[in-house]
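Action item from last week, closing it out:
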Amino acid sequence: MSAKPLSAIEREILRAGSDDWVPLLDVEMLARRLDPDADPLGAVEAALAALLDDELVELGDVSDGGFFAWEDSPDGALNRLRTEWRKGRSQDDRAFICWVNNTAAGDAAVGNRGSA
């Protein structure tokens, strides 16, 4: 786990996640807002990879029973996200491929490393 400053998108994902689980659609919209010219999948992958590597978030599904983390490794979770993203024909298809849940370290990082 590194203590590098958070990027703008990483910081925004963690801020959103400190309140509730974050659907992939919100992460995509953050990526598009913060860098309209970037490839959205690339920006989403890069941000989530950094957060997963630092154990600040986990990816999973949400149902009536709550949040259920995927049991994949960080690389496996990103591969799963990438595969499902490419299957989706529209933003609506991709909206809820996964949800992002802050870990306790992720909630703490919002305050500790929030300024990039």
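Closing note: The CA atoms of residues 57 and 102 lie 4 Å apart.
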